[in-house]
Amino acid sequence: MGDELAGGSSMNRREPRRAMLRGALAIGVGLPLLDLCARAIPEASAQGDPKSQRPQNGDRFVFRTGNQTGKVITVADIPVGGPPVPAFPMDPSGVVRDGSRLNQLLLVRLTLTDLSEETRGRSAEGVVAYSGVCTHTGCDITLWKAESIRFRCPCHESEFDPKDAGRVVGGPAPRRLPRVPVKVVDGVPVAAAGFLGRPGFQPT
Ligand code: FES
Questions:
Q1: What is the pLDDT confidence band of residue 57, given thresholds at 50, 70 and 90?
Q2: Taking the CB of the first residue and of the last residue of the chain, which one, N or C, has fewer CB atoms within 10 A?
Q3: In this predicted model, what pLDDT tens digit does every residue of 87-108 receive, in sequence order?
């Protein structure tokens, strides 16, 4: 069985889709499934407006869903082993970068010994941060497989390994999930750099 992500809610009730998603439960971002595809939602410009700029060194993270939406996420807020916490970055002045759906992040706190050496080096206190947008055709990643510790995309079943740099471990996604390196300051996860890799769907 999988787990629902923090702030979760069920998102799609069509039987065929339900069958396809067996083994993973909804992260729950409060959006109907049909609204999750990047091609249906124009991306805001990442230029100029700090709300639409990609995460940067020094950004903290805030809850993206649930009754704590907008509150700064601490390490203690992130359950060890998942489920992931949906987040947006927030710049040091307090501007939440929610002006672009490509800034959607998933924060997960994992056991250090489970992380690959490379991933451990980009994490802090087991916290890793990944793009919440699938690299296949850009759906929101809204599912979590707790038993195998994987993100799962609801659209075409791509799976990504947060323990190993977001590596693709199933489905048609052509690229790993981009990460945001994390450090911890006074018990609060903070971005140590911007995205490693470009988030979302890349047309060829
Ligand atoms: S958009 Fe994620 S698998 Fe196709």
A1: very high
A2: C
A3: 999 999 999 999 999 999 999 9
Residue ranges lining ligand 1, Cβ < 6 Å = 134, 136-139, 153, 155-156, 158, 171-173
Q: Which of 101, 104, 158 to mutate to test the pocket of ligand 1 (most atoms within 8 A of CB)?
A: 158
Of 96, 84, 171, 184, the residue nearest 130 (C-alpha): 84
Enter the pTM of the model. Answer: 0.83
Work out which ligand 1 atom sits closest to the CA atom of 172: 3
Instruction: Give the full edge-to-edge strand order of the sheet including 85-90.
Output: 179-180, 127-131, 105-109, 85-90, 60-63, 188-191, 182-185
Q: Whose CA is nearest to atom 3 of ligand 1?
A: 156
Distance 76 CA to ligand 1 centre (A): 31
- Ligand 1 centroid – CA 153 distance (Å): 6
CA 50 to chain centre: 20
Query: Residue 90, SS3?
Result: strand
What tokens appear for 35 in the block?
Answer: 């609204």
Q: How far apart are CA 54 and CA 164, in angstroms?
A: 23
Rounded CA-CA distance 122/135 in Å is: 20
What does the angle CA 105 – CA 183 – CA 167 come to, to the nearest 5 degrees?
50
Q: Distance from CA of residue 156 to its chain's centroid? A: 17
What contacts 86, CB < 8 A, 6 or more positions away? 5, 6, 7, 27, 28, 29, 63, 64, 65, 104, 105, 106, 132
